[in-house]
Amino acid sequence: MSANQTDVLIVGAGPAGLSAAITLKRLGVKRVVVVDREDEAGGMPRLCHHTGFGLRDLRWAYTGPDYARHYARLAQSVGIELRTSTTVTGWQDESTVAITSPRGLGEIRAGAILLATGCRERPRAARLVPGRRPQGVFTTGSLQRFVYQHHLPVGKRAVIVGAELVSLSALMTLAHAGVSVVGMVTEHPNHQIAFPYRAAKWLYADLMARVPVLSGARVTGLMGSQRLTGVEITRTATLKQETLACDAVVFTGDWIPEHELARSSGVMLDAGTRGPQVGPGYHTSTRGVFAAGNLLRGAETADACALEGAQAARHIQAFLTGSPWPAQGVPLAVAPPIQWIYPNVINAAGASLGSSAFHFRVLTFCRDIRVTVAQNRKEVFTQSYRSLAPNDTVRLEGRWSSAIDPAGGAVRVGLESDR
Amino acid sequence: MDTVFDIAIIGAGVVGSAIARELSRYDVSCALVEAKADVGTGTSQANTAIWHTGYDAKPGSLEARLVRRSDALLRQYVPEAGVPFEMLGGLLVAWNDDQRKALPGLLERAHQNGDTDVSIVSAEEVYRREPHLAPGALGGLWVPGEAIFCPYTLSLALATQAVLNGTQLLLDHPIREIVSERDDTYTLRGPGGGVRCRTLINAAGLYSDEINRLLGHRDFTVTPRRGELIVFDKFARSLVNHILLPVPTAITKGVLISPTVYGNVMLGPTAEDLLDKTDTGTSASGLKALWEKGEAILPELMREEVTATYAGLRAATEHSDYQIHLYVDQRYVCVGGIRSTGVSGCLGIGEHVAELLQGAGVTLTAKGEFMPVRMPSIGEAGLRPYQSADLIAADPTYGQIVCHCERVSLGEIRDAARAVIPARTVDGLRRRTRALQGRCQGFNCHAALVAGLAAETKQTPERLLQLEADHVG
User: Fold this and answer.
1) Structurally, what CATH architecture does the domain formed by B83-147+224-312 represent?
2) What is the pLDDT of residues A119-148, one digit of tens each?
3) How do residues B251-274 score in pLDDT, each as one tens digit?
4) Residue A263 at interface with chain B, using a CB cutoff of 8 Å
5) What is the 3-state secondary structure (H, E, C) of chain B?
6) Is B102 on the interface with A (CB under 8 A)?
């Protein structure tokens, strides 16, 4: 057992983890160790061969693999200790983790730990889609690894379940593999692909025009015993069923934060995001443990994660240099149709480094509404929106958080009609 | 086709494999003939993975006797062979007055079956043992001998040991026709090739009635009884301490909730008679029914993520007892109707079949040496390779994790591909290592496993995927 001491341990070498590590180095933190269970650093962008990565953090459009390489190289050049093929298997105490790698078992003890373990898509079984277990059933993640990483065949005719930004990623992967796409199935009345930048809308207009969006429908069964032969879809309004012939189906989105390590450490989770509860400074409920990136709420774009990682790094550095760990604070409770919000705890942290904005998602399309924030039923803030879509993260201004009493009563975030 | 085996066993499920292992102690040539690409792929793999003591079997029945005998044999074999198991004990929970009143009868039956450590416990004791249980339990029956185990490893251990001791395993050999030759031998024919033998044993599970008919017997019909199951995330494991059993009815042992040896929690099975012996699909109605049961028994379980759903078919017949018959003139033993206690009864059945053969004049002379078997450690209760400093120091591939959810290393994947009975498909790899069985269901590792196994077995991924499609479902 080789014990290892470091100033900061970061778990996950994706955009959030690497960007946090690089920022910590720039802020003068001496020893930063980043571990990743994959054999290569860079995280999920390595698997997304389309362009559009890095617009907000690097001010340039990279492909996913180029973007991942950029961060991995930068991390190495600033002297970060990067350990790939290294799995954190558990906690010895609040500041020490156990690891396994081809070099053996070990421990890493850190002054602060940042969890940046990312997220995964909810697979078919967890969506309780009945049927047998035929071949040809994917998530976007498994599909991208089949196509880009291992160059394996995936089928000829595919159905995409979901019609959000990641579904577009699945669509491009299928197009690259020469697979025709029957359609994108979404239970919502419309697709939810809100392009993060205008050029993307033009870039993908042609691709989108060729793929029908089957809205108001759910996939309710898989056909075929050995190879997938089709999916059964049910229209939510009429309960009418039909079969779409296909030999591949890709379940996209429906994110689950990879919270195994977070949860096993005992940090409190947020009921909405199912990621760790964090305050505006990315502090979890456990002293010395921070969380950032897609672990917080499922997938956002890589640049958003990288910016978050950099922001978290500033709070980590402050903590290492003596800033007190914030007291637990008051959690934010959301009411439907709001799905989740983060940060989801208001505590004393963050003020000195500038209060960040909040981000939230809704479960259904909404028009002309306003978000209200109330503590002890007293409204402290409201912001109006023309329209909101599900599976699309929206920014909520953060200046109201200073009006919240961290030791006070419950804070509720809800929606009201603005007409 | 030239070799004439002394004995051929049709069906390499847990029962056929146990018979083969038992016979491999003796100086007889034996073929284990399997229709599928791997051993233990039918009812033997898709069940509740519970090792029943047989406390509730009908006293005096063959099933009661063989499950009882098997229980004693398994207690030695399972740890010795490295089959993952945990002796958690079963807790039968009574939720209404009728069920509570049935408990003394079950206790008496357990005692009749020789299961004397079974006892009735109060509602208070039920909640002390299972604090997460829904309110309303009136009492329970505590069956300390009930255990969970790994059904994949058990079938593989038995078949591997049979092979190590000289049994010829013939996979991809479905049997469609049986010809009784003039020289008192049988020729078994099918698309995978023919097999010749002197004595025939039918352990074909769901298809045992069809094989039986090929030999002119119509004394039972197998009705596939589908059981659907839901497997929950490992985070649910702390919610359950024992195997939570319902009070059984005539048709089924009912829906139970149990930890698995992989650290998950399982809810099921349903019981639904079907016509199609290949319909191992889950259904919307079955999953919905399970969900409602789960909510009623252990509501917190339903807040956790689902990891997998699956369905298995039990080989139910019109008879309540096992259908094990020796036909001396035909040199044929039928081992059918092993409806739901196949894994619990397998070793007892193996021994019983050997006795029947000896009784019928087949000479069984013990060999000088009987090779033991030791299976890879894939249960949560044992030390996994990723946790072993010594193993990783000796071979770093045991520290190279490929399947992150289940923490399966590259070394274990290589071992499975090179095993005595090697993994030929990714599904075979899953049964031997747990890879692909975890919460992400292949989001991270599916493609790597396909590519890795193809390289290890020296075939193209396309060919591997084709083989996979030919054999799953």
Assistant:
1) 2-Layer Sandwich (3.30)
2) 999 999 999 999 999 999 999 999 999 999
3) 667 899 999 999 999 999 999 999
4) yes
5) CCCEEEEEEECCCHHHHHHHHHHCCECCCEEEECCCCCCCCCCCCCCCCEECCCCCCCCCCHHHHHHHHHHHHHHHHHHHHCCCEECCCEEEEECCHHHHHHHHHHHHHHHHCCCCCCEEEEHHHHHHHCCCCCCCCCEEEEECCCEEECHHHHHHHHHHHHHHCCCEEECCCCCCEEEECCCCCEEEECCCCCEEEEEEEECCHHHHHHHHHHCCCCCCCCEEEEEEEEEECHHHHHHCCCEEECCCCCCCCCCEEEECCCCCEEEECCCEECCCCCCCCECHHHHHHHHHHHHHHCHHHHHCCEEEEEEEEEEECCCCCCEEEEECCCCEEEEECCCCCHHHHHHHHHHHHHHHHHHCCCCCCECCCCCCCCCCCCCCCCCCHHHCHHHHHHCHHHHCEEECCCCEEHHHHHHHHCCCCCCCCHHHHHHHHCCCCCCCCCCCCHHHHHHHHHHHCCCCHHHHHHHHHHHCC
6) no
- Mean pLDDT, all residues of chain B: 94
User: Under CATH, which number does the domain B385-471 receive?
Assistant: 1.10.10
Distance CA A375, CA B381 (A): 48
Pairwise CB contact (< 8 Å): A105 & B468: no
Q: Given this model, what pLDDT does residue A410 score? A: 87
Which of A138, A225, A256 lies nearest to residue B473, judging by beta carbons?
A225
Q: How is chain B split into domains, by residue range? A: 1-82+148-222+317-377, 83-147+224-312, 385-471
Q: pTM value?
A: 0.96
Q: Is B381 on the interface with A (CB under 8 A)?
A: no
Q: Which CATH class is domain B1-82+148-222+317-377?
A: alpha beta
Q: Hey, which residues of B are catalytic here?
A: 52
- Give the DSSP letter of residue A146: I
Cβ neighbours around B132 below 10 Å, total: 15
Distances (CA, A) of A76 to A79, A116, B166: 5, 18, 56
**What's the pLDDT at B251?**
62
Q: Are B90 and B56 in contact (CB under 8 A)?
A: no
Pick one of 3.40.50.620, 3.50.50.60, 3.30.365.10, 3.30.420.40 as the CATH number of A1-121+255-325.
3.50.50.60
The ipTM of this complex is 0.95
Specify the CATH number of the domain A123-253. Answer: 3.50.50.60
Laid out side by side, the sheet with A241-245 consists of A217-223, A230-235, A241-245
A1-121+255-325 and A328-419 agree in CATH topology: no
Written as one string, the DSSP assignment of A42-94 is S-GGGG--SEEETTTTTSS-EEHHHHHHHHHHHHHHTT-EEE-S-EEEEEEET
Q: Do B287 and A128 touch (CB under 8 A)?
A: yes
Fold of A328-419: Immunoglobulin-like (2.60.40)
A2 against A31, higher pLDDT: A31
CB B471 within 8 A of CB B427: yes
Looking at residue A1, its pLDDT comes to 41
CA B473 centroid distance within chain = 17
CB burial of residue A257 (10 Å; 0-12, 13-18, 19+): buried
* Interface contact A126-B392, CB threshold 8 A: no
* B468 vs A: CB within 8 A: yes
Does the beta-carbon distance from A123 to B389 stay under 8 Å?
A: no
Query: Which residue of chain A has the CA closest to B451?
Result: A150
| Tokens describing residue B318 | 């019109």
Sketch the domain layout of chain A as residue ranges: 1-121+255-325, 123-253, 328-419
Q: What is the pLDDT of residues B322-364, one digit of tens each?
A: 999 999 999 999 999 998 889 999 999 999 999 999 999 999 9
